């Protein structure tokens, strides 16, 4: 992966925003600051990897709402939500939204940095996984419908003969399609083929 | 008259004598026929003829007026033309010095003085007299009148001498006789006439009655006067019994008095009434003297009497006048100092007096009720044993009984001597009158404000009674008095009502009333005023200086400023609360509200009245209330804060978090020591301390806000307070995602008030606004806070775009305690706001916005010096 991870700061409190900027500057981490969620959404085009640092309470759109909006857009960016009061509804909502880190204000020692660093690392990891998954999926997407049909049955462990009779085609035809599937998915073995199919199925 | 005798100076001696004789004869006969009143004139004429004839300058008659013949009176005189008369100089002449003449005359001698120069020395005084008047010759002869009176007939010549012949003297003596005769005759006739006069007065004008009568009343003698008086002959009178002539009411008394006469005291005088044959009653005064026989029995009574009716009438008239006067005085004076509630009794009593005085059985006042078209009996007096009027007479319709009304309307009295005078149309009235035995009456109208107002009347059982103008006048007076009394009653009642209102107002509303005569510095104060200052009652006129001295020194400047502003006309009302120091050193709070009610042409104040109220208890109560309010406000603040104390903590966490992050960055910079780190570390250190301060401020304000503390009035910047408060409540607005906008007038003068209390008001208004916005789905969620200067006051407005007011809740009621539109609200927030703002002499009110949401406005006084900005 060639992209440098970027930290996105979204906070309407000037001091909070500035303090995070200064910290990241010391850490030599690239960052972008936004005064509101709306401003961030307008600018952000899904660049990865990165980490979003935001506050729960903000005018207009809150931090949690922002995260939800990102999820809706299918962005799996790491999020660090800072809150002054981690009351139950907020925590429940955050967990449901799958936020990476919920940090309570004021943060102790390196809590914030640790959370950001963790978020960034995770996002790098996630981003790699996402990229791999996207590769595997594109391999699957390259199969013809007849080949996909055969793949599903192969993964289900059905022998060629049975496939040929179910599809009312010759065993020879089944074998030809099976060879195409292995080749298009770049799988060396049946086990590898099953692994690829499972990976893509889990993520969708 | 004229004596037709020709002058004969030029006649010859024989002719002269004969014609002189003829003259005298003519004079003599003429005089006899002269009427008495012409005798004096005739005498002078005669003297003139004789004088002319004998060529003398004066002829005159002197008559002594006293028996001793000392003073002579010139009774008649003739003077020739150009000769001054003696009458002017010698009218009453003392003849004592002229005894030379008078002695001779007294001896019946004539005095002949042919040449004054040859008078003997004894006649020196006569000579002086002659010289004085230029008399050269004279001739005097004595006159002897009846009753021994004497006199003198004189002739004198002025400027020339004359010698009288004996013959002439004899003839002149005859003239003297004629003079004496005529003068005597004149006297006699005069005396006769005087005598006749005396007789007439004695006989003809005799009014003394003389009568003699026996104890049984039979008369034995009456004089002519009695006959003339009764218009009866002696015989007719003697045939009548004395007692039949005397008024029945006087008989018993007179009999008793006669019976009481004794030989020792046989006489008495009595006034009693006599009945004349024509029915008239006359008053007589009789002196009765009884004659007794030897047994002491009365045999005869001699009576001398006279008619004293006129005197009696005069006397009665006088008494009547006096009574009338007293009645009038009584009627008028009794109503002068009359309390209104006494009026009814007094009027009835006045009716009684008038009724008794005039002589009637019923006197009354009917009031005119024009609307009802009737007269209504208002007041009535009835003589004892007199029946009151039937109901029909208590209200008399003047529509049905128009009789008399036009007369009354024109202001004239209506009199009725007998019921027969009533017209047939008033038959019902007549029957009613008859029923109560009224035979005659008089009714007099009374006007009030040019309208027939009431009728005063008197009725009598007496038939044919003539009602005098005086009665009408008395009734009129009564009417006047009545109307005045009623008007006065109304005025007094109105006054009393107004006084009562005033006094009630003064008593109820304020303790002390004052009326300040500004030019004199004197203040009239009410008793309550005195009492409120523990001053002795009664001394209600005080000095303004004394008042000023009583004002607490700390308040005096303020009071003076306010008072001067009002006196100068800058304020419409003077209103000031201040302390006064009483004599015992204690202090009382006064609320003084006054107003200048009179100014001179130049506008300078002349008089100021006001009410000075002891509000000590009120102030104490207010202070207690303020304390209670303060406690309540504190509780509310604590409640407000307690509710969200965690939220406030978050607000503190905000800067703390920033500080911690700055610190994190700083430690990283210190570890890595990247180029230029020192500078960055310094910046970060500043940022950290700034955030720490921010946190500390929030904590301090929170403490201030929640800590109970006394009211501290001070100048402060409202904008700063608004920002701070909004920041303090930032956690709320943030949580609710509400944007707070500020539109603050940066030139707003400082306001005066208690900062914490005003902050509480702002907190309440902001929280309400947040709640309202939160409850609505409207976007954007926004609360706007504005400040501005509004007519010299600071105006703070909190505008939300929230839910607005439920239809069933009035805006004003929001300010009532325990009124809330929130499920979890206490309903005291706005009530406390109002209490706080009113204690700041400000104003708070709410209004619905045009689109949605509400605006709450607070007006607060600003620092005076800056109020012009």
Describe this protein with a few key phrases.
heterodimer; A: 204 residues; alpha/beta; Rossmann fold; Arc Repressor Mutant, subunit A; 2 domains; 9 helices; B: 869 residues; alpha+beta; Beta-Lactamase; six-stranded antiparallel β-sheet; 25 helices; elongated; disordered N terminus
What does this structure look like?
The complex is a heterodimer of chains A (204) and B (869). Chain A has a five-stranded parallel β-sheet, with helices on both faces. Chain A is an alpha/beta fold. The model of chain A has no long low-confidence stretch (mean pLDDT 84). The two termini of chain A are 23 Å apart. Chain A contains nine helices and five strands, in the order E-H-E-H-E-H-E-H-E-H-H-H-H-H. Chain A folds into two domains: 125 residues, Rossmann fold (3-Layer(aba) Sandwich); 62 residues, Winged helix-like DNA-binding domain superfamily/Winged helix DNA-binding domain (Arc Repressor Mutant, subunit A, Orthogonal Bundle). By secondary structure, chain B is an alpha+beta fold. Chain B folds into six domains: 183 residues, Beta-Lactamase (2-Layer Sandwich), CATH 3.30.450; 99 residues, PAS domain (Beta-Lactamase); 174 residues, Beta-Lactamase; 103 residues, Beta-Lactamase (2-Layer Sandwich); 96 residues; 158 residues, Heat Shock Protein 90. In chain B, the strands form six sheets. A six-stranded antiparallel β-sheet of chain B has the order 3-2-1-6-5-4, sandwiched between helices. A six-stranded antiparallel β-sheet of chain B has the order 14-13-12-17-16-15. In chain B, helix 10 runs parallel beside helix 15 and helix 11 packs antiparallel against helix 15. The longest helix of chain B is centred in the middle third of the chain and has 41 residues. The N terminus of chain B is likely disordered. Classes of the chains: A alpha/beta (204), B alpha+beta (869). Chains A and B meet through helix 1 of A and helix 20, helix 21 and helix 23 of B. Chain A: One of its GO terms (molecular function) is DNA binding. Chain A: InterPro entries: CheY-like_superfamily (IPR011006), Sig_transdc_resp-reg_C-effctor (IPR016032), Sig_transdc_resp-reg_receiver (IPR001789), Tscrpt_reg_LuxR_C (IPR000792), WH-like_DNA-bd_sf (IPR036388). Chain A: Keywords: DNA-binding, Phosphoprotein, Transcription, Transcription regulation. Chain A: This is Response regulator. Chain B: Pfam families: GAF, HATPase_c, PAS_3.
